[in-house]
Amino acid sequence: xxxxxxxxxxxxxxxxxxxxxxxxxxxxxxxxxxxxxxxxxxxxxxxxxxxxxxxxxxxxxxxxxxxxxxxxxxxxxxxxxxxxxxxxxxxxxxxxxxxxxxxxxxxxxxxxxxxxxxxxxxxxxxxxxxxxxxxxxxxxxxxxxxxxxxxxxxxxxxxxxxxxxxxxxxxxxxxxxxxxxxxxxxxxxxxxxxxxxxxxxxxxxxxxxxxxxxxxxxxxxxxxxxxxxxxxxxxxxxxxxxxxxxxxxxxxxxxxxxxxxxxxxxxxxxxxxxxxxxxxxxxxxxxxxxxxxxxxxxxxxxxxxxxxxx
Length: 310
What we know:
The protein is an all-alpha fold. It has helices spanning 2-29, 36-66, 70-113, 116-142, 146-151, 153-170, 178-206, 228-238, 246-256, 264-309.
């Protein structure tokens, strides 16, 4: 859970800090630092609102638990979080290149009209979006215990690393491109999303909401049990211990959705998820290459017409 919390918090906090940093840096560059306090006011209010959302979410979850329906809420959160995590990675990959230009364009309009309220609301919504996403993802990886994730070393470390990376980026001392950071962390986020998807399916099968054509495609308990209890049971039943500890299995299950005895549906969902991701990536790259080619063609045509006129 802590590693998941670290990666998620790092991504969300870094995205928020980058946008706020772009805004404040631009205001400094155009000699309008007097508006900086309004940007930070919006960001601060968003942090407070995010905490309020976390508390409200916890109250709702407790209400479901009192009705004995928390398991259905957990499953729903897992599926929605898997979708949101995937969307987050692709959104950042698509918009990171134009992010600076778009943010500065909005700031120009706010400065021109003297729209202080607009600045506050803009920074508020930017940070609030990241805060709400973090709350939702924490609920998914902890089974609803958001407070445990917020107070753990993973979330705290993620915030510290994100603040450090943001600081050295805007100080101009960062040598590794942010694109590389987002690609690496994005790969881990995708793995987490795949794990949540599979865990959701497993829980549905445990509740007999959906069946299984093949409950156990293979059994890797002899190599890596997914829980210390499975380790003990295997040792008791076979007289020999599995090669790896059940603690490792717990870690991998929490991080990537590892299962020592997955059903056929889990395997299909896991493999299918990555097939879809691969198709989306190749489609996006093909579209980008086509747009670049068209852009170059238009530039060449314009240059040719200019020479002809001259």
